[in-house]
Amino acid sequence: MTTLIQPTSLSRRNALKLGGIGTLSAATIGLLAGVPGLARAADSMTAGDVSILNVALGLEHEAIEAYQIGAESKLLTPGVLKIAVGFQSQHKEHRDALVATIEKLGGKAVAAKKRAAYEKALNVAMLKNEADVLGLAKKLELGAANAYLGVIPSFADKNLAQVSARLAADETMHWTVLAQATGEMLPMKALTFGA
Asked: What is the model's pTM?
């Protein structure tokens, strides 16, 4: 399983890798250096990143369940169903990567809710045809893209900001395909997402 945190260059943080010991956290460095304030600040920054990642994980749980509900609805034509299942698979990959990263940071990943909670939140009783299902999926993908873009400046670990941008790109791609499937015109103005 691949985690989201992948060092891209040799930095002080990456230089602290010691064989099988792993990377020393900023909190550990602060404690070793006798600077407890640095340790507390680093723990707080990591906790903030974990909180953001858990919100993102919640979005992925919701998307996975929404696509499952759509797939089981019998409202999707075979071609659209294939696309929906493909997007759900990507959301499962997002989920797995987020869980691995949260755990690597020492956090506890939020669990998915029960199906009934998603059905209520998504108002699935209103889904009467394929267009309704696609409209719901499109709305969720746009919301996720905007959420991922919106949190980029909030990460203490800038590697996570890059990951958030990559996730936003996937969500934007999903939205674009769904918009085309529903016959919606693509935005003609620049800077449509993340606003």
From this structure: 0.77
